[in-house]
Amino acid sequence: MSVAGESRGRAQQMRDKAQQLSEAAERATDPQERQKLQEKARRLKEQSQQEGSMGAMGGQEQSPPA
């Protein structure tokens, strides 16, 4: 798998986990726990966006100089 493909895969995993955390936050009855889960989900989503954009940029493989 290429570097870009691996980055996209990691970014997708992060987005999936962020979605799970968001859903858990919606079910949480404790306001502090809900806020904590929402914050974790937000940070993870931001990281996944950065990871995805890096993967798009790093997807251009270069051959070593001759």
Element layout with pairings:
Elements: H1 3-27, H2 31-58
Describe the structure.
It is a single chain. This protein is mainly α and 66 residues long. It is 80% helix and 0% strand. Mean pLDDT is 84; it is low at 60-64.
Give a summary of the structure in a few sentences.
With 66 residues, this protein is an all-alpha fold. 80% of the residues lie in helices and 0% in strands.
| Helical coverage, percent range | over 70%
Distance between the termini: 24 Å
Q: Report the structural category.
A: mainly alpha
Beta fraction: under 5%
- Classify the oligomer: single chain
**Dominant shape:** elongated
Q: What is the overall number of helices?
A: 2
Radius of gyration: 16 Å
Number of strands: 0
Order of helices and strands: HH
What does the average pLDDT come to? 84
* Most strands sheet: none
Question: Main attributes?
Answer:
66 residues, mainly alpha, disordered C terminus
